[in-house]
Amino acid sequence: MVNIGFVRRILNQSQMMLFFITLCVTVVILAHMYLQSHNRPKPLSDTVIFKKTSVLAMEHISSAPERLKDLIAKSAPKKNRSALPLCPEQPSHLVGKMNIKPTVTLEEVTKENNLKNISFGGRYSPQNCNGRERTAIIIPYRDRKEHLEICVRHLHAVLQRQELEYGIYVVEMALPTQFNRGLLANAGVRTVREIYDYTCFIIHDVDMLMTDDRNLYRCGNQPVHFLTLSTKHGNNSISYADYYGAVVGFTSEQYQKCNGFSNLYFGWGGEDDDLGIRVQSAGMKFIRPKKEIGMYVALLHDGDVSNQRNPNRYVLLSQAKSRWMEEGVETVQFQRLALEYRKLYTWILIRVKEESIVRRYQQYLEDMTSRVPTILLSNVLPIEIVVAFSVNLLFTYVMMDIEQLY
Ligand code: UDH
Ligand code: NGS
Predict the structure, then answer these.
(1) CB 71 within 8 Å of CB 58
(2) Partner of 112 at 20 to 30 A CA spacing, among 63, 150, 222, 303?
(3) What is the rounded CA–CA span in Å between residue 146 and residue 138?
(4) Does 86 lie in the same domain as 19?
(5) Nearest atom (ligand 1) to Cα of 141
(6) Cβ < 6 Å from ligand 2: which residues?
(7) Residues 172 and 126 reside in one and the same domain
(8) Is 213 in the pocket of ligand 1 (CB under 6 A)?
């Protein structure tokens, strides 16, 4: 037991009060730090958990944590394709301009496209030739179910006409964290790299539909920005020359060379501009298709509650040049909660901890004067504040009681 009489002999009443209050605050802070260090995301390969739900190819999914590579080895298509020729440079079944409107419905897209020969998880290989590349379409996603169904169906139809070997991967971020498009792209790349030896990664918004299938989803000798116009940006030009949003494509080497996206943009805006700076800093340059074939239809949607404008995006952007090598696809931290092979795509659910991610780059965030209150608040949970206040009140009360005994 603490000898209060001894403490009382060396401290007066107000000093004692102060002593106990500081003691309480210290205990709470230490407890918080302890909990944080124990919640830190573990290395990628240790966190694969397969969730049992009714999905296609259920028999391939184990409920026990299992190495993704072992699982894929068991489920990979066995067909010998080595005798097939390489697909032609110019695919012969393209239709060119398609008549799609921003108001297109799921029924219309489904009726228009009779999808065949898609393997579980949304993978496809041309029937009579070998694709020139192995392409992973990665869709950062949250809460846009109708758009997802439309987008995926449209993509399958177009990519099959383009004679690509591809897989579609939908990467979703569990709530309550603010949406982070760049981090989802990085998590997607890290995951699909384990699934198959993809040579080309295309990061694709869920609400963007290409309107001309001559816009081939192939990677080039430079990163590709596939969008030259969109219904969102008007008929004549995109927002600004250095706009690299919506749909971009990288070879595996190019993505590694610029270290992918930044992981630090939580909320809306800036991550695509940051990507542009990374590409340039890594000595590369985005290329675009011809203006007339790079037109996209943007599906209509309301603002998202969990993707508010990021107030720190300009500060982060101003540091992009000095930060790009330090954080990106190679350092992304996330926990994979589920991976399901669905009929038309593979669904990957991840969880991230905003505070532990940004804390690792504190030296950059220290410049963010506007963000300081948010950082402080996000590091101390409301429950901890309540506990600290209650404990302090209790001690004050007890001390006043003890004081009255003397
Ligand atoms: N996305 C989701 N769910 C979300 C937010 C974003 O799936 O809640 C994905 C989706 O792939 C989308 C992409 O991230 O296509 C880009 O997000 P967006 O469509 O919201 O971006 P856009 O530039 O936003 O189209 C325009 C609205 C800006 C409002 C900003 C304040 N909320
Ligand atoms: C810029 C954003 C980009 C965004 C672009 C187009 O202002 O992230 O608008 O938006 N950059 C910053 O906020 C720093 S759009 O017209 O598509 O809504 O992609």
Answers:
(1) no
(2) 303
(3) 17
(4) no
(5) 7
(6) 232, 239, 243, 245, 269-270, 272-273, 313, 317
(7) yes
(8) no
Is the domain of 31 the same as that of 67? no
Task: Give the per-residue pLDDT at 192.
Answer: 96
- Taking the centre of ligand 2 as the mean of its atom positions, its distance from the CA of residue 284, in whole angstroms, is 22
Is 371 domain-assigned? no
Q: Is residue 389 part of a domain?
A: yes
Q: Which atom of ligand 1 is least distant from the CA of 208? A: 15
What's the pLDDT tens digit per position in 242-285?
999 999 999 999 999 999 999 999 999 999 999 999 999 999 99
CA 279 vs CA 17, 77, 186, 244: distances in Å? 57, 35, 15, 10
The average pLDDT across 170-180 equals 95
Residues 6+ apart with CB under 8 A from 91: 161, 162, 163, 216
Query: Counting ligands in written order, which one lies closest to the CA of residue 146?
Result: 1
Q: Based on the domain organization, do 282 and 385 belong to the same domain?
A: no
What is the model's pLDDT at position 19?
72
Contact 145 CB / ligand 1 (< 6 Å): no
Query: Could you give the number of structural domains in the chain?
Result: 2
Q: Which ligand has its closest atom nearest to the C-alpha of 230?
A: 2
For residue 322, give its domain range: 48-365
Sole residue written with tokens 């940051």: 274
User: Where are the alpha helices (H) located in 258-381, listed in sequence order?
Assistant: 271-281, 313-318, 320-323, 354-359, 362-365, 372-379
Between 24 and 105, residue with greater pLDDT = 105
- Least distant ligand from the CA of 304: 1
